[in-house]
Design a protein that fits this description.
heterodimer, A: alpha/beta, Amidase signature (AS) enzymes, 11-stranded mixed sheet, globular, B: mainly alpha
Chain lengths: 466, 67
């Protein structure tokens, strides 16, 4: 069994060299072989997958594929509502929740022809994890199942890296797409706030939630985003603007790009591992040699961006969960209830001061990005830690690198930059101006194409494929 | 991160929030309270009275077109 990208599978399907049914059966076989170890799925929808695949195959044989996602095996994070299929948020509280409607993005991806393989593990309500006290176990990292995936889109990260699906959805309120993309060695983009509809996705924090895709390559993320993006009047934050061609700038290289590096974020404010630093420096060398200009950028220390984002997040999340927190506190997993419960103690004044701080930081970012196309920093501090060694307060103890771009709404992508001493992936994060995803994809794709990292898959997945 | 208030003072906040917790659950929450205090301090940077918050909204153009 081969590992295919979406782009390659789509090419073969269009040329009638690959059957969507066979591709789906291969992914189902991988799921059967590996998911007992990885726990990437909460629910495998085998019958639906085979029905989708057969329908896709029949339509393609008759009139060709309707696009590059027609017949592609795909999974949804289990906070994306799926009509008639339980959507649990990986929580006891929603164990029996069966939505009556699809989320807008679920509908758009179905219209693009994806084959629904099932619902993927998440940190509980996209916030607390890794948790061992929920109805389903936490997802594990395919590069070493003793290690963490990061979250909250943990199942999508694991499933894509192991080839159980070719792509999947994630959501990102402080880094929940880019974190697992980084630790699982795949690509994941948090698009500009408002680009993808949030309607029908279980909310965590309204002003910070973003929907986006995760896949093996940058190009695959661009293909998926093309299907997911677009104005949705049922989402009040949805941007009413024309969706560009996200692959339009792929292949243009990095020449002429103006790149800024927020070196103090990952060298001083939260010092990253040597392998992560080497990966970032390697990427900057690549950009310089490709004809991009690279210069350092200094921003407010990372802890301020992270703290402001976290305060807003935990307050908005508490407001949503307060009724259940008051009556069913013990039904939440320990990690979620202890982290989110802190939102109960943020006063209205504190929240307003955080919103005023948010505006100041957004203004600062806009000024810093005025003559820059791409901003570079870390995505995660290093390789994935052991899953049993993640502190409940990990995200409080040291500031994360990703939440800066939730706070400001700027698009940001995590891409693999190699492997660390433990053999697990390391990564970097690239960000661009709002709605400049085509340029973000251009830079990330140019780097990814020049490096060998996409040639390597987790040993566990290779053994299952042999 | 050490909290600036005692466990007894924290218990008052818990009660005011409408939470009915066991001693163990309350102690677990208290462990994280110092981090929240630190974040609250960070967003209280000096600023003028006129500094606007981020959630001020504008009407969409479709609503404000003059017929």
């Amino acid at each position: 069994m081969e590992f295919l990208t979406i782009a390659e599978a789509a090419r073969r399907i269009a040329a009638k060299q690959l059957s969507p049914v066979e591709l789906t059966q291969q992914c189902l076989a991988r799921i059967k072989a590996l998911d007992g170890t990885l726990n990437a799925f909460i629910r495998v929808t085998e019958e639906r997958a085979l029905a989708d695949a057969k329908a896709a195959e029949a339509a393609i044989m008759k009139s060709g594929p309707k696009g590059p996602l027609h017949g592609i095996p795909f999974g949804h994070k289990d906070i994306y509502c799926t009509k008639g299929i339980p959507t649990t948020a990986h929580s006891k509280l929603l164990q029996d929740h069966v939505p009556r409607e699809d989320a807008t993005t679920v509908r758009l991806l179905a219209e693009a022809g994806v084959v629904l393989m099932g619902k993927l593990a998440t940190h509980e309500f996209a916030f607390g994890g890794p948790s061992f006290d929920l109805p389903w176990p936490p997802a594990r990292n395919p590069w070493n199942p003793d290690h963490f995936t990061a979250g909250s889109s943990s199942g999508t990260g694991a499933a894509v890296a192991a080839g159980l699906v070719l792509g999947g959805t994630g959501s990102d309120t402080g880094g929940s797409i880019r974190g697992p993309a980084a630790l699982c060695g795949i690509a994941g983009i948090k698009p500009t706030y408002g680009l993808c509809s949030r309607a029908g996705i279980l909310p965590l924090a309204f002003s910070l939630d973003h929907a986006g895709p995760m896949a093996w390559t940058v190009e695959d993320c661009a293909i998926l985003l093309q299907a997911m993006a677009g104005y949705d009047p049922t989402d009040p934050a949805s941007a009413d603007r024309k969706v560009p061609d996200f692959r339009a700038e792929l292949g243009q290289g990095a020449k002429g790009l103006r790149i800024g590096v927020v070196r103090h974020f990952h060298e001083v404010d939260h010092r990253v591992s040597d392998a992560t630093l080497t990966g970032i420096e390697g990427a900057l060398d690549f950009f310089r040699k490709s004809g991009a200009s690279v210069r350092d950028v200094t921003l407010t220390p990372l802890a301020h961006w992270h703290g402001c984002n976290f305060l807003i997040l935990v307050t908005e999340a508490w407001a949503l969960h307060e009724p259940w927190m008051r009556t069913r506190f013990g039904d939440y997993g320990e990690l979620l209830r202890d982290r989110m419960g802190l939102g109960a103690f943020v006063t209205g004044t504190d929240y307003m001061q955080a919103l005023r701080r948010r505006r100041e930081l957004c203004d600062e970012m806009a000024a810093a990005m005025a003559d820059i196309d791409i901003l570079v920093t870390a995505s995660q501090p290093g390789e994935a830690p052991r899953i049993d060694a993640v502190s409940k307060w990990a995200t409080f103890e040291k500031p994360g690198f990703t939440s800066t771009f939730n706070l400001t709404g700027y698009p940001a992508i995590s891409v693999c930059t190699g492997f660390g001493a433990g053999g697990l992936p390391v990564s970097m994060q690239l960000a661009a101006k709002p709605f400049r995803e085509p340029t973000l994809f251009r830079a990330a794709h140019a780097y990814e194409q020049a490096m060998p990292w996409r040639q390597r898959r987790p040993e566990l997945a290779l053994k299952a494929a042999a | 991160m050490k909290a600036s208030i005692t466990q007894a003072e924290f218990a008052t906040l818990v009660k005011r929030a409408g939470l009915s917790l066991t001693d163990q659950q309350r102690a677990a929450l208290y462990e994280g309270y110092g981090y929240i205090e630190e974040m609250i301090e960070r967003v209280r940077t000096p600023r003028g009275r006129e500094a606007e918050p981020a959630h001020i909204f504008v009407f969409p153009p479709s609503l404000t077109k003059v017929p």
